[in-house]
Design goal:
The complex is a heterodimer of chains A (294) and B (263). Chain A is mainly alpha-helical and 294 residues long. In chain A, 78% of the residues lie in helices and 0% in strands. The model of chain A has no long low-confidence stretch (mean pLDDT 89). Chain B has 263 residues and is α/β, with parallel strands linked by helices. The longest helix of chain B has 18 residues, at 174-191. Chain B starts with 6 loop residues before the first strand and ends in a 5-residue tail after the last helix. The chains are: A mainly alpha (294), B alpha/beta (263). At the A-B interface, α8 and α9 of A face β5 and α3 of B. Chain A: Keywords: Cell membrane, Membrane, Transmembrane, Transmembrane helix, Transport. Chain A: Belongs to the binding-protein-dependent transport system permease family.
C-alpha cells in the first residue's frame, strides 16, 4: 500500500464536495433571487438582461438565499470586526449558547451515566425506567421547551438554567442508551472470572464494567454534545431570548435578515464541529492510553 | 505424591438438573469422585457430558441440585469465598485494556495484596509460564498460546492450591498445544498444585493426567475413572510407549461404551 497522502486522502475529497456545493449554491442564488430583480425592474418600467440580473442577485440586501460571500462578509463583520462585548457580536451570542450547551451537556452526561448504572445494576430500575427514557424522546422538544421555560420562569428560575435543562433533556438519552449497552458489554467469561475472585460489585464495576463501557461512552458523548447545542438553540427560540444563536435566528427571521440567519447557522455548525472534534480527540487519547490497537 | 494425601474435591452422588423451557435437563447424575492433593485429573467426554458443568460446580459458577460436594472440606461457595482455586477458561479472557502484568495483577488487586507483593508475584508467575519480559505488552500483541499462558499465570498469581482448567488449549493448534502441555506438566511439578483439566483430546488427557475421568452424555455421568500407571516424569515421546497407548485405548473404550449410538 502507498503511504497515505494527507492531500489526496483527506483534503481533496473534502474540497471536491465543497466545490460541488458552491456551484449548486451559486446557481440557486441566481434562480431564487432573480424574480425580485425582475419585479424591481418591472416596477421601474425598465427591461433587464440576464447579464444585468446575475450580478444583482449576488448583492441584495435581503435575498431569499444569500450568496456565500455575503455570509462570509457578515461573519467577518460580526466576529472579527466587532468587540466581543458588543450585543451585535456573533462571538458574544455564540458564547451565550455555548455556556447553556456545556452546562446542559454536563448535567445530561452525569444524569445519563447515573441512570445507566442504576438500570444495569437494578432489575426494577431496568424494567421501570427504560420505557420512560425512550418515551421521553418521542415528545417533540419544540413542544416541551416553551413549557419548561415558562414553568421555571414562574418559580423564579430564568437565564442559563432553563436552556441548559432542555439540552440535558435531549443529551441524557444517547448517554443512557450507550452506557447501558457499554456497561453490559463485558463477556460472560470476564464476569465469571470476577465471580471466581469473589470480587465485590464495586470492584466489578470499576475494574471491568466501567473500562469496558468507555468506548461506548465517547460515541454517545459525540451525539450528546451535538444535540445539546440543538437543545440550547431551541431553548432560545420560543422565549424571545435576547441573546444567543437562537435569538439571532429568531430576530433574523422577524426582520427578513436572511444573511444574519445564515451567519448564525454557520456559527452554530462551526461550534458543533469544534465540540464534536474535541470529544473525538479525547476519545482517541483515552483509547490510546487503554492500549488499543493502533 | 503420597497415597495418604488430603482430599481436595469429594463428590458424592452429585447431580445437577437445569430447568429449561423444554423441561428439565440432567447435566450431571450420580457423580462420585475423589480428587487428592497433587492429583492431575482430566475430564474427558463428548460435548454435553457435563465435564465443564462439573468444573463449574467445583468453582461455584453453577449450583448442584442433588448429592453433595466438598472442596477442601468446604461447600463450593465457601471455597470460592476463601479463594481456594484459580480458573482458566477456554478463551484467555484477558482484559484488553490492561497490560499482561496488569492482567496478572487483577486478582491480586481485588484480593488486596500490597503493591510490592503484587509486583513480586507478577514477576514470579510470568517467569513460571515463560513470559518474562512480556509484562508490558497488551494482550493483542501476543500470540494465542502466549495469551493462554498469561491467563494461566493469572490463575497462579494468588495462593490457590487448586487449578481448574476448562479446555485451556482447545483453541490452539497442535504444535503449540504439545508445547504448552509439556510446560504445564513442568509447572504442575514445580508448584505441586492440584489440577482439574477438561479436554476432549484423548492424547492430551493421557499425557497430562494421574487420573482420567471418562464421562458420557444424556444424562451427564462418569463411566470410568482410570488411575494412570505412567510415571510423573513425562517427556513428550512417552506418547509412543505401549503403556501410554494402553491407557489411551482404555479411555477410547470407555468413551465408546458410554456413548449410545442409537440416539
Amino acid at each position: 500500500m502507498n503511504k497515505p497522502s494527507l492531500f489526496l486522502d483527506r483534503v481533496l475529497p473534502v474540497l471536491t464536495v465543497i466545490a460541488v456545493i458552491l456551484v449548486i449554491w451559486h446557481v440557486a442564488v441566481v434562480y431564487l433571487n432573480a424574480p425580485f430583480v425582475r419585479d424591481q425592474a418591472a416596477r421601474a418600467g425598465t427591461v433587464v438582461t440576464l447579464g444585468e440580473i446575475i450580478p444583482q442577485t449576488f448583492n441584495q440586501e435581503r435575498p431569499i438565499l444569500p450568496a456565500p460571500h455575503q455570509i462570509i462578509a457578515e461573519l467577518w463583520d460580526t466576529t472579527i470586526a466587532k468587540p466581543i462585548t458588543s450585543k451585535r457580536s456573533l462571538v458574544y451570542h455564540a458564547w451565550v449558547t455555548l455556556s447553556a450547551t456545556l452546562m446542559g451537556f454536563g448535567m445530561g452526561t452525569v444524569l445519563g451515566i447515573l441512570l445507566a448504572v442504576g438500570i444495569v445494576h437494578n432489575r426494577a430500575m431496568d424494567k421501570s425506567l427504560m420505557p420512560w427514557v425512550i418515551a421521553s424522546q418521542t415528545i417533540p422538544i419544540l413542544a416541551i421547551a416553551p413549557m419548561i421555560i415558562v414553568v421555571l420562569n414562574s418559580i423564579g428560575i430564568s437565564g442559563l438554567l432553563p436552556k441548559a435543562l432542555i439540552s440535558t433533556y435531549l443529551s441524557f438519552f444517547p448517554i443512557v442508551v450507550g452506557m447501558v449497552k457499554g456497561l453490559r458489554s463485558p463477556d460472560v467469561l470476564l464476569l465469571d472470572l470476577m465471580h471466581t475472585y469473589n470480587a465485590s460489585r464495586t470492584q466489578t464495576f470499576w475494574k471491568l464494567r466501567w473500562p469496558a463501557a468507555l468506548p461506548y461512552l465517547f460515541t454517545s458523548l459525540k451525539v450528546a454534545i451535538a444535540i445539546s447545542l440543538v437543545g440550547a438553540i431551541v431553548g432560545e427560540l420560543p422565549t424571545g431570548a435576547v441573546a444567543g444563536l437562537g435569538a439571532r435566528l429568531l430576530s433574523g427571521s422577524y426582520y427578513g435578515q436572511t444573511i444574519q440567519i445564515w451567519a448564525a447557522l454557520f456559527m452554530a455548525a462551526a461550534l458543533a464541529a469544534v465540540l464534536v472534534s474535541i470529544i473525538g480527540l479525547a476519545h482517541t487519547q483515552v483509547l490510546k492510553r487503554m492500549g488499543a490497537k493502533p | 505424591m503420597t497415597s495418604a494425601a488430603a482430599p481436595v474435591v469429594t463428590a458424592r452422588d452429585l447431580g445437577l438438573t437445569f430447568q429449561t423451557n423444554d423441561g428439565p435437563v440432567n447435566a450431571l447424575t450420580g457423580v462420585n469422585l475423589d480428587i487428592k492433593k497433587g492429583d492431575f485429573v482430566s475430564f474427558i467426554g463428548p460435548s454435553g457430558c457435563g465435564k465443564t458443568t462439573f468444573l463449574r460446580v467445583i468453582a461455584d459458577l453453577e449450583k448442584h441440585t442433588s448429592g453433595s460436594i466438598e472442596i477442601n472440606g468446604m461447600t463450593p461457595e465457601n471455597a470460592r469465598l476463601a479463594r481456594a482455586y484459580g480458573y482458566v477458561f477456554q478463551a484467555a479472557a484477558l482484559y484488553p485494556w490492561r497490560t499482561i502484568e496488569k492482567n496478572i495483577a487483577l486478582p491480586l488487586e481485588i484480593m488486596g495484596y500490597s503493591s510490592a507483593e503484587q509486583k513480586q508475584r507478577v514477576e514470579r508467575t510470568l517467569e513460571l509460564v515463560n513470559l518474562s519480559g512480556f509484562g508490558k505488552k497488551y494482550p493483542w500483541q501476543l500470540s494465542g498460546g502466549m495469551q493462554q499462558r498469561a491467563s494461566i499465570a493469572r490463575a497462579l498469581a494468588f495462593d490457590a492450591d487448586l487449578l481448574l482448567m476448562d479446555e485451556p488449549f482447545g483453541a490452539l493448534d497442535e504444535i503449540v498445544r504439545d508445547h504448552l502441555n509439556e510446560q504445564l506438566l513442568k509447572l504442575w511439578d514445580r508448584t505441586n498444585k492440584t489440577i482439574c483439566f477438561v479436554t476432549h483430546s484423548i492424547p492430551e488427557a493421557v499425557y497430562l493426567s494421574t487420573k482420567i475421568v471418562v464421562m458420557s452424555p444424556r444424562p451427564g455421568r462418569v463411566t470410568d475413572v482410570i488411575e494412570s500407571p505412567l510415571p510423573r516424569e513425562r517427556p513428550l515421546d512417552i506418547r509412543d510407549t505401549p503403556e501410554f497407548l494402553e491407557v489411551a485405548h482404555r479411555v477410547r473404550e470407555g468413551l465408546k461404551a458410554g456413548h449410545s449410538y442409537e440416539e
